[in-house]
Specification:
mainly alpha, about 75% helix, 7 helices
């Protein structure tokens, strides 16, 4: 008994070529529609705004992460990890010294300092929202979501250590 196979036509199977043509057509349509929707919007400005808010929140986020890490791991262990990290950074540009200063600042941060750092670090959610509202405007009559956007970014700080 031989298995019943259908033989491919002389030109070979076309399902692979058909799928490829459909994917290419879909990709072209998606690119065309994206360009049409982005026309008139300043994408560079929005991405610069999002990057600006991200840059503003890096140092406070690291300070909070170091403070939380010392609670979880202990001060001496965090110092050891920080020293190992500083040793891996280039000395010629002073990155090692900057990392050690940031580590010391995070370890000596007071509870009030942690609260202020969290307030600044959580600004990324709000900044990202402001950058993206250029493309999908929100209803100004709706309740302000700034506080909720800041709260939504807080779990990221908790995951940092």
């Amino acid at each position: 008994m031989t298995p019943a196979f259908r033989e491919a036509p002389a030109g070979g199977p076309t399902y692979g070529r058909d799928m490829s043509a459909r994917v290419q057509s879909l990709a072209r349509r998606l690119a065309r529609e994206t360009r049409a929707r982005m026309h008139g919007h300043d994408l560079w400005l929005a991405s610069a705004g999002a990057a600006f808010y991200g840059a503003l929140t890096v140092v406070p986020s690291v300070l909070v992460a170091i403070s939380l890490a010392q609670v979880v791991l202990g001060r001496s262990r965090v110092r050891g990890y920080g020293a190992a990290l500083a040793g891996a950074l280039p000395q010629a540009i002073g990155a090692d010294a900057a990392a050690l200063r940031l580590l010391d600042a995070g370890i000596t941060l007071t509870p009030i300092g942690v609260i202020f750092a969290i307030a600044v670090a959580s600004a990324y959610g709000e900044g990202l929202s402001r950058a993206l509202t250029r493309f999908a405007p929100v209803d100004f009559d709706a309740k302000s979501r700034a506080v909720w956007l800041r709260v939504a970014t807080l779990p990221l700080l908790g995951l940092a250590p």
